[in-house]
Design a protein that fits this description.
Elements lengths: L1 E4 L1 H12 L8 H14 L5 H18 L2 H9 L3 H6 L2 E6 L7 E6 L5 E7 L7 H18 L17 H25 L8 H11 L5 H13 L5 H9 L26 E2 L6 H10 L9 E2 H10 L11
């Protein structure tokens, strides 16, 4: 696996240090850097001048130990060296652009890219934590045992349900990764208390005993594959495909979680006929959510009776 460093990131990091924003950089070295950089302006050919600047920046990137530092952190994830053709570090366009991504070309060559802001290099400890977390994501992506897929869409989900699934999956994957990192003795971006709070906030609708059970499985690593995380994110109550009138099950018509149900037998014949015309697979024995019942009865031109709560 080759390690690659984007010119923009190298220049940004070196300039950040030369501006005195990284502690521990001797003033004499900063003056030497500026002197070498000033000499580049004496190069007349524009292309050669750009090359000269890049050479100076890369030299000081190495001099100040950043190349060695990034190489050392990457070696803590040996799976990357086995599965990636190259691992590149590039400059992020902004805070929301930071993170690790996996790219595959037509020849099935896999390359990892880690996007970072230059200011991340102002202090080594928080940068190390961030890199551990992001490289662990990348290691999961290339690990066949994890079984990663970028497609989180589940059959029958609406756009809002898919957004919720993605957010829950993000929380679950982060918990799983940080639990494994801390067991390895590697510092990461959040400790157990922080992840515990985040997990319980995302799954507050589950009974406390169920949350405790899931948390223990996640943090210990017993629940640590893409399929398991996606199943939990998309169907945390275990009601997938169930339209039984239980709180939180999906309505067979609108697909949203329902907490108030109506027996289809209470609907007028014209409302039931319209539902069957629009949803040929629907059976009258299935209950529907109170919202759908109210809507179809209204369309049928009748006043909707009081909701039946089951």
């Amino acid at each position: 696996m080759r390690l690659l460093f984007d010119d923009d990131l190298v220049e940004g990091v070196v300039q950040w240090c030369a501006a005195g924003k990284r502690t521990g950089v001797p003033g004499l070295q900063i003056r030497r850097f500026h002197a070498e950089r000033e000499r580049c302006y004496q190069v007349l050919d524009p292309d050669e001048r750009v090359t000269a600047f890049a050479r100076v920046h890369l030299s000081w990137f190495s001099e100040w130990g950043f190349e060695t530092f990034l190489t050392g952190v990457a070696k803590r994830f040996p799976l990357l060296a086995d599965r990636l053709t190259a691992l590149a570090f590039r400059q992020a366009r902004g805070k929301n652009d930071e993170g690790a991504e996996l790219y595959c070309d037509a020849d099935a060559q896999r390359r990892g890219i880690v996007s970072l802001r230059p200011e991340r290099f102002g202090a080594e400890a928080p940068l190390t934590c961030f890199l551990h977390h992001e490289l662990a994501h990348l290691a999961d992506m290339v690990d066949e045992r994890f079984g990663y897929s970028p497609d989180l869409a589940c059959t029958g989900q609406t756009a809002s349900q898919l957004r919720l699934t993605r957010e829950r999956y993000r929380v679950l994957w982060a918990v799983s990764i940080d639990g494994r990192l801390l067991r390895r003795g590697l510092e990461t971006v959040a400790d157990q208390t922080q992840r515990h709070t985040e997990f319980h906030r995302a799954f507050a609708f589950l009974p406390e005993s169920r949350r405790a059970e899931l948390w223990a499985a996640l943090w210990s690593g017993r629940l640590a594959t893409h399929g398991e995380l996606l199943e939990l994110a998309s169907d945390p109550r275990g009601l997938q495909g169930s339209h039984a009138p239980v709180p939180g099950a999906d309505c067979p018509l609108c697909g949203f979680a329902a907490f108030q149900w109506t027996d289809a037998a209470t609907l007028k014949p014209s409302a039931r006929a319209r539902i069957q015309a629009e949803f040929p697979g629907w059976r009258e024995a299935e209950a529907i959510c109170a919202r759908c019942a109210e809507m179809y009865d209204a369309i049928a031109g009748v006043e909707y009776p009081k909701t039946v709560c089951l």
